Amino acid sequence: MAALHEPLFRGHEWEYVKECIDTGWVSTAGKFVDRFETMLVDYTGISHASAVVNGTAALHVCLMLAGIRQNDEVICQPLTFAATCAAIAYCGGLPHFVDVSPTTLGLCPDALETRLNETAEIVDGVCQNRLTRRRIGAVVCMHTYGHAVELDRLAALCARWHLPLIEDAAESLGSFYQGRHTGHWGVLSAVSFNGNKIVTTGGGGAVLTNDPYLARQAKHLTTTAKLPHRWEFEHDRVGYNYRLPNLNAALGCAQLEQLPNYVAAKRTLAQRYAEAFRDVANVSFFTEPSGCCSNYWLNVILLDHPDRSARDAILTATNDAGLMTRPAWQLMHRLAPYALAPHGDLKVAESLYDRLINIPSSVTLGESHG
Amino acid sequence: MAALHEPLFRGHEWEYVKECIDTGWVSTAGKFVDRFETMLVDYTGISHASAVVNGTAALHVCLMLAGIRQNDEVICQPLTFAATCAAIAYCGGLPHFVDVSPTTLGLCPDALETRLNETAEIVDGVCQNRLTRRRIGAVVCMHTYGHAVELDRLAALCARWHLPLIEDAAESLGSFYQGRHTGHWGVLSAVSFNGNKIVTTGGGGAVLTNDPYLARQAKHLTTTAKLPHRWEFEHDRVGYNYRLPNLNAALGCAQLEQLPNYVAAKRTLAQRYAEAFRDVANVSFFTEPSGCCSNYWLNVILLDHPDRSARDAILTATNDAGLMTRPAWQLMHRLAPYALAPHGDLKVAESLYDRLINIPSSVTLGESHG
């Protein structure tokens, strides 16, 4: 079976993990957690990183720190993994869906501007939905399959509408926009190190921010909100146990050492796919949008025309043949828990759902025919 | 430094963890997760186990599945780790504190009965607080430092008051009550495998239940509520990413193989402590309550009389000397987030807080002078 994306361990993974076991430091304290966070800062250029237990937890923390509370609406794209919306729901908020761009597959600045003009207003400095009277608390953009959205335009729009921008960068570690790593434009951003990501900690995530106050809050909130004391157990708020175990961070340190090589291999694979599909009729290979140097986390082919049965025929044939392929996630506004969520016109996302197929994208595939 | 409780790896930990890395199965699917769950079922005799990312997540799942929702009160003890109350808060509930028993250190059946008679009534089959008019949604008892509470009496009281009993068994893996493993009396129970527990997965937990419907719900809810399909990503509710990575489960399988030996060693250590303290004036060693065969997770000494300065003098002297000791957790009703929570008389917990000291309890200490 050719996997969609399988992890690759051939650096110091075993050495670091063994060190944890040998020293007994496997749990929620230990040097690999600190080293992992430092390595993330060094690689992304974002000044603070808090390692957490997974990408969903990272998103939850971003939304809590952005101040999302009961009955807030949070603008996000319908084409995303369920965690984006789940994290909004954990805060008591409701997603408000805005369409994606056909050139990035992520939140579309034009659609966002149109939607805000149509439905939002600023009341006493706060962005509100004119129809529902609910506060709009934030915008979450997601870098779909690793490709960066138009961050400069989205950030400018958010600033104009008094909305904090959060980057769901779960899939975009190793992806840059206008020369800077994704995660730089948002007030906060969330990364994932799940087993299917470009590098993995087994399960893991991180909250990235350039804001030192938010970084301190992220660390405090995710480590049970315990106050420092030689022996007393005092907690000054309802905290979360979102700590990444040292065992998983050890794996992550070894993986981050490989990240530049992995990005290079995945870009090589994408180039080869692009060439292979160049002259194929009715299908195109999706290439990185302008301004973005992508990690090509999951490669995408698109049918020229929406055709669910053609899509399913390809999915059936490839999976039957041991080549793992997948459609896009079911669009969020079509899931039962978000059936009542407000949304604008979502025709780009709806078309993509009928046209999009992810094809095998493991790092090794980019190396194997060098 | 003599730790309070350090993990011990000398079985198949390396072998199983290396197998994960060698095969690439480190993440949220893999055979060690299934094996870990089966081993928990075999050891505890409770029919279903869902491995999750940590004990806090396990508690959260127990409370969600018990139906706790916005503005419910949940009865629990003030002498516990902050996670018990945090999990209640995640559901929108509020703790309602009832005192602990001096013989178990956990929730006191007499205090619970008094408190329910004083403040609760059954309205249309639902237990309500007469004063606050809020629903009382559940009772959570915690097996403090591994010692079982009086589960038969608590379960009978809960049944009479239409209250689901949840066991916070985070500390009591390996502890039995009336011949059955803790976790058997609650509708649901939560176990922790944090690094300081009797066995560890780095970070991890499990939801245990004898109810097959709740077990299916626990698995579904903790694995993003995804519906099974060959390739579609459909989620029928707001799910959680509480999956234990295979890497951590592998460590856990090796640890569970050692559990009976670890319990035996810890019981030997407790016996030795009991003898050592037998003739010491003004201090007693806490021994397991009647009906309980305890794992003696953290050993406890108690000053005969509440005296915070005597307690702190011992804490200072021992920690200065490299012998790690700790007081009880700050009582939950004294923490800022729960300052407004309802509570009855808590004089036993308050006395214990001034008298209780945890002393070094690692497995190796029970073996070293056999």
From TrEMBL, chains A, B:
It comes from Magnetospirillum sulfuroxidans. The keyword Hydrolase does not apply. Keywords: Aminotransferase, Pyridoxal phosphate, Transferase. Pfam families: DegT_DnrJ_EryC1 (PF01041). Signal peptide: none annotated. The keyword Transferase applies. Belongs to the DegT/DnrJ/EryC1 family. It comes from the Bacteria. One of its GO terms (molecular function) is transaminase activity. This is LegC family aminotransferase.
